[in-house]
Backbone:
């Protein structure tokens, strides 16, 4: 890694997946707290089905409500990250901890004080906070009253929340990511946008309308944040991964091009300040209805991002005709199985070179500093006698970080840092299971919240520690 420039090494978590204590100190539920441990998690939620997902019967298990107990263990967890050598930590602030229903006039002081304590610990350990304002989380009250981000009123409510947090922590947080993986509102709309669908209605229009409102809220948060502190830096954040054509048939190549245009739509707007040229025709072709107010264009144009952050787990693959081709999981949805990639131990295919390709693609497109804020492998671990021998995670880290470094050193990529996702085991978004583990730190906890919740260092902890201490050089050994 190039010397003379600060590079962020560390890990990432989200409030909804790590904190637990979901009703502590005045907090009220979020959409994420009502994701049960079953196959309903990633499906669209219809308003006539809300009794089955938005109301507990006592039989369902909601792992997000427990997280990994970070709310109680933040001091020791941050100390572990310092022992790892991390110089940065990405976490999210829980909107319903600050404004429990989202409509209060004054914030919940207890919620603000919790994040004061987290920041104090990070400052003590000399770790840079990278803060997400909305990581798949919106107060449940706003889901029920406004249908989440479909309603423009939520833009104003988010602004109150964002302004409150940025004023309170002025000078203590420099790097802000207003929304996590904004493009996922098109794949997991309840999780990404707090959206409940109507049977038989134009649901795709609802998703794009919610996305537009998030783009507005993102731009207004930038405007407010720069007024509060001109040193604040704001990033787009997308679920990234190059989409390959299944074959060199021009029809497959065109299908991949179309998919990438849609996947990069929201980051295009955040970087360039306007919708891409294809978008009006896309809306017309799909018969979509999108309400854009006259002032929206100026707001988006004026308030663009300073950097582009993204998650990368694997690449995607598509074809003009997909019939009969096997599909595999990727980040929040499925894609065609790439016959040139091994499946590995994870649910998705292992493509470390795809990270280098993605970095080049994003830099060529955006000409902004890039930041890998999520990368990792989610899989089962065997915990035996206080140890986890996760050679598969070490293999994943080595391949991906090696390709990241080649992109920087040989391709000239302007990269801010690398943050490993779920650095401390936490319940996954896609399955809700903590048994689908990402971390280099093991949490003694099962999917039903049984266990001591104690932390143990996996074999991958020592390997990632060496990566950080060598500034990445160990991956070439």
Residues:
């Amino acid at each position: 890694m190039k010397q003379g420039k600060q590079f962020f090494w560390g890990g990432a978590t989200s409030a909804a997946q790590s904190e637990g204590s979901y009703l502590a100190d005045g907090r009220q539920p979020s959409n994420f707290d009502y994701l049960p441990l079953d196959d309903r998690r990633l499906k669209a939620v219809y308003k006539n089905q809300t009794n089955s997902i938005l109301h507990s019967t006592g039989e369902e298990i909601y792992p997000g409500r427990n997280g990994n107990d970070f709310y109680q263990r933040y001091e020791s967890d941050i100390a572990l990250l310092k022992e790892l050598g991390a110089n940065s930590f990405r976490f999210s602030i829980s909107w319903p901890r600050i404004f429990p229903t989202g409509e209060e006039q004054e914030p919940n002081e207890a919620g603000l004080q919790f994040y004061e304590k987290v920041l104090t610990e990070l400052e003590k350990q000399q770790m840079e906070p990278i803060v997400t304002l909305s990581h798949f989380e919106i107060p449940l009250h706003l889901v029920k009253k406004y249908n989440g981000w479909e309603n423009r009123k939520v833009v104003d409510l988010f602004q109150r929340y964002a302004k409150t947090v940025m004023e309170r922590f002025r000078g203590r947080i420099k790097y802000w990511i207003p929304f996590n993986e904004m493009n996922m509102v098109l794949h997991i709309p309840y999780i990404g946008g707090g959206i409940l669908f109507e049977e038989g209605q134009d649901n795709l229009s609802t998703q794009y309308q919610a996305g537009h409102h998030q783009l507005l809220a993102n731009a207004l948060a930038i405007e407010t944040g720069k007024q509060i502190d001109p040193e604040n830096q704001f990033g787009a954040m997308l679920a990234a991964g190059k989409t390959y054509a299944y074959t060199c048939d021009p029809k497959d190549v065109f299908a991949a091009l179309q998919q990438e245009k849609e996947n990069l739509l929201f980051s295009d707007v955040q970087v360039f300040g306007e919708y891409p040229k294809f978008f009006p025709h896309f809306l017309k072709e799909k018969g979509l209805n999108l309400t854009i107010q006259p002032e929206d264009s100026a707001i988006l144009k004026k308030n663009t991002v300073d950097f582009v952050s993204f998650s990368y787990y694997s690449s995607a693959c598509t074809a003009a005709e997909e019939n009969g081709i096997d599909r595999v999981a990727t980040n929040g949805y499925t894609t065609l199985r790439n016959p040139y990639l091994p499946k590995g131990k994870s649910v998705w295919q292992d493509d470390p070179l795809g990270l280098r390709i993605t970095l080049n693609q994003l830099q060529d497109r955006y000409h902004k500093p890039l930041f890998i804020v999520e990368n990792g492998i989610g899989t089962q671990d065997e915990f035996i006698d206080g140890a986890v021998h996760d050679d598969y995670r070490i293999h994943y880290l080595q391949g991906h970080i090696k390709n990241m470094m080649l992109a920087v050193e040989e391709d000239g990529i302007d990269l801010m840092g690398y943050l490993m996702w779920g650095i401390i085991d936490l319940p996954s978004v896609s399955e809700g299971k903590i048994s689908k583990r990402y971390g280099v730190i093991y949490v003694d906890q099962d999917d039903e919240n049984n266990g001591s919740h104690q932390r143990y260092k996996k074999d991958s902890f020592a390997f990632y520690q060496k990566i950080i201490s060598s500034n990445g050089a160990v991956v070439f050994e």
User: Anything to note?
Assistant: The longest helix spans residues 203-228. The first strand starts at residue 8 and ends at 12.
